Amino acid sequence: MPKEPFQPSIKYSFYTPNSLRRKNLWLINLRWASSIALSIFILVLFLFKLENYPYPALIGIVVVLLVFNSLILFYLKKRNPKYLRTEENIVFAQIVVDYILLTALTHFTGGIDSPLHLIYLFYIIIASVIFEKKYQAFIIAGVAVLLLSMLVLMEYLQILSHYSNGVKVYNISDIIIALSVFYVTIFTSTYIGVTLMMRHKKVKNLIFAQKEELEKTDKEKMLFFRFVSHELKSPIIAVQSAINVVLDVMDNNLKPKARDMLERGRKRTVQMIDILKDLVSLSYEEKEEKHEPELVVPCEHIPEVIDYYRPIAEEKNIQLIETICKQRKGFQLDKFVFENIITNMISNAVRYTPNGGKVTIKTDLDDDYWYLMISDTGIGIPKEEQKQIFKEFYRAGNAKKFEAVGTGLGMSIIKKMVEQENGEVFVESEIGKGSTFTVRFPLK
Q: Strand, coil or helix: what is 105?
């Protein structure tokens, strides 16, 4: 059977409160421009000495337009956009007020004979684009039809004066034809605009729903990925422990070749554990919902992390030097994030420092920042590659030659997690002399 096309089960809003607020502000800017254009229009009428138009009334419309625009702008500036419905109501209110002013302007410039009543169509387009429901745009169309019809009827019954430079002629057939054309144009335009926008919104709704499905699938894959990485870690640690026991117990009875093979195996298990840690960290998503993080005071927690790497450093005869400052009380970091940052930094420093070198772990603070600096006497990083090392899976050329096994994830993980805590990371390095990585976090 053919697969059914995916149908979204949730309705997504085409706009957000912020995006609709921008539409409201756009209408205000448009009204400023309209005020200028209307003022120029009145000036042209006056210069052509068309005396039948009530210039004080036209100027009054401009004043009302400017006052209304100022009030609505003041209102919007005082309130943050929180609710979609509120922003929609503001759009609706602006259009209705504009329609009332446009109807007054149409009345004072010729009524049904005025070309300005074509501007009603402009708001039909706006309503079709903005409003989520079909009926909202048709309500706007109904308001336009009602206002112009009332104006024409009141002028025909001579309740209102008919302003024109021509001869006053009230031909009912001409009025019916003109209004009929107006009705058809308004409602047809509304139908076309709403239909096109509904299709567009349906496509966006589908895209949003598919995006949600993809995010859900991606999250499930990440959870599976973490589970597998965690399960692989346990047997590797078991192998590592077995190798350590053999080396400790049979130290003097092992042949040099057997000892060399076991040492290589132990080294590879350490590398594999580090790789698995990198892969687990890579799957960590800062946007996903999680429980309240466990917080630690960085300077108090650093020695625990260093102790893990001390045996590894001793194997390479690398000296670990600690210069840990007294921590300002109250400054804490997410334990998971901080451990990933410092373990990756120390791991890289030890890994790429030759036997007999030094790795220095130093912390400092000033009035604004807490600093973590890890320096090594390792191979260094070429200057032209220093900006690239924070990319996922990237490894410097000399690093590949020095250490064949590696994911190239360590520095990208460091950068991602440092930035997650609103921190920054910097590197200074020189080939053959070593590197210094500095991480700083704003004091909270």
A: helix
Supply the DSSP string of 132-152, one letter for each residue: SSHHHHHHHHHHHHHHHHHHH
The neighbour count for residue 199, using CB atoms within 10 Å, is 10
The three-point CA angle 427-432-436 to 5° equals: 20
Q: What whole-number distance in Å separates Cα of residue 210 and Cα of residue 297?
A: 42
pLDDT tens digits, residue range 298-310? 888 888 888 888 8
Q: 154: which 2 tokens? A: 């009141």
pTM over 0.90: no
* Nearest in space to 25 (alpha carbons), one of 91, 78, 79: 91
Six-digit token pair at 188? 């047809």
Q: What's the CA angle centered on 351, arms 438 and 382, to 5 degrees?
A: 60
Backbone angles phi, psi at 210, to 5 degrees: -65, -35
Rg, the chain, Cα only: 37
The token duo for 206 is: 């589908």
pLDDT for residue 44 is more than 60: yes
Cβ–Cβ < 8 Å for 131, 88 = yes
The answer on pLDDT for 391 being more than 60 is: yes
Tokens read off for 376: 């090594």
User: Are 331 and 297 in contact, with CB atoms under 8 Å apart?
Assistant: yes
List of domains in the chain: 17-214 (no CATH), 290-442 (3.30.565.10)
Q: What single-letter amino acid sits at 148? A: L
Q: In what order do the strands lie in the sheet with 319-323?
A: 319-323, 358-365, 369-376, 434-442, 424-430
DSSP assignment letter at 112: G
